[in-house]
Amino acid sequence: MPAAHLTRRRLAATSALLAAALTASLAAATLIGPVRASLWTALGPGGEHTPDFAILFRTRLPRVLLGAVVGGALACSGASLQALLGNPLADPHLLGVSAGAAVAGAIALMAGADPVSPIVPLAAFLGALGTVAAVFLVARAAGRTSPYAILLVGVVCNALGAAAIMLVNAIASYTQAQGILFWIMGSLSAQSYGLVAVAGLYALAGAAVLVRHAHHLNLLAAGEEDALTLGVEVEAVRRAVFLASSLLVGAAVAVSGMISFVGLIVPHLLRLILGPDLRLLLPASFLGGAVLLVWADTLARTAFAPSELPVGVVTALLGGPFFLVLLRRALRRSAP
Amino acid sequence: MNSNRNTVLQTDCPAACASPEARDIGLFVGPSAGKGLDLLPVRRVLLPMERARRRFGGLLAGALALLLVSCAPAPPQAARAVPRRVVSLAPSLTEVVYGLGEGDRLVGVCAQCDYPEAARRLPKVGGYLSPSVEAVLGVRPDLVLVVPSPGNRESVRALERAGIRVLVAADRTLDDLWAGIAAVADALGVPERGEAMTSKVRGKLQAVRARVEGLPPRRVLLVVGHRPLIVAGGGTLQDELLRTAGGVNVAADAGTAFPEVPLELVVARAPDVILDAAMGSEAGGRELFAAFETIPAVRQNRIVTLAPDALFRAGPRVGEAAAMLASAIHPEAGGS
Asked: Which ipTM did the prediction report?
């Protein structure tokens, strides 16, 4: 099954299955929450003036949708970064790309940008782009990247990002610093459909570019030499993938702060089931990431109700052990 | 030397170890030191004090000092000298010192100590919970006032090692305030002024209580941060002040002092009044809740923006804070 050849039918069937799973998850997650709300009351006569309607459709649904957008964006960018860097441990958070996005977003906030405007995602996108470029340049200096090199670059980028964020905090005024800190810690809470639309637009644009280049990225992942021989414009593809994955991370970080490991877990699980073909893996990762984060956030909302956990806590608790297993496997494989 | 410990504890010796400061110092000392104390023969430790101190660090010595003070005769007069140069590392304690009429003894305050106006002109010796040990030592204090917190614990220990007398007083609740006023007044050698101050502040709270007596209690949500949504929970100073002002905190059961809660909880709990004390965002609160006309506070336009500072300090202005809350919760009861 994993090695099965990718046909148009298999692509359509898998995508439809995952899309159905996502739709079901969105519906279920909207009905689950710390507070009881009746769908019948909300949809009954005069329902839009009931608290039930406000709870279900004005607070819970936008939040669930935002979780789906962010999860999809992170997983899809993780899958593309793993292919581009030829490294199974690439993840936007571990590589420091999320930190780069957070630094740039924090600077935009300090300069007075409104947290809900499209400026912050744009700044976050530029920050992510700069970090991806830096990771790539350093990791590639040793030729084909090793797990060590890439993790070390990630460690450094994260440390630099953390330092830059602290610096911004030290320079910003007291009230600004508070706002920036909360923004970075992130949360899917208290969101609006407007924010879902902004983030969704950025994320879908990024995902579309990646899917369009999936075939070339496949060839590139198999080896740069081979790709060149087969007529792939390697530099152009690489540039497009850089831009698109940064756009995805920028969108995710701008609306939800730093959420770790989604970009690692989802592509790996799906690769085990679906095989490595990116034409299938990229859209599947988007849908799978959406499902994962919707459920992780549902857990975050309900586990200690009525207080809530930051969703990043849930993903890190799920993803940390998963990452260690992967790391052990990668190191064994790269051992002489 | 250890005399600094002795003096502080000696000040409130009548209350012995049950006084809040002793408890707080006990908190710094930690349970392991207490255990070590049981294991050591007291006589052996009494004589080679210096050696014991070197061996077990300042912690054990502090615990021993505590024991000594409660059983030994009062130390020599020199150690009981009234402090002339005082540093306050908490906005609440700074206000207490000024309230006692002893502001001219202050030679340094924390960066957040902004009230009264005179406090702003004093040398700043670091942040509320991140004091600079060097800066504190630089103003040559003979008494430092701090609140117990994991953030300043190491700095406080360093000050004590440098031989500075430290008074630890909590500032979380009204009971903390009464104990803090008494402890600071005692340490400054003006206990009768402490008593006067306490009864004055208690009187103001009583006046607020009288103002709202007989009025139906209103359901109130006190918002501290917007994104994510953070509110005042139970067991906090704010909760006590809300009750004093004739309100019922709808988030009192949320489990932690300042829980992050989902927006839907606000819709479900339907507060009559929303008090918005989030920093640096006057319009933010209204905007956040505007779409939820099922919340009585939104429908009746009872969203009130409050200046946060006085409200978040267990200091002598709690009476004013309670009066401000009463005006916001029960505007029909008239001003004070």
From this structure: 0.70
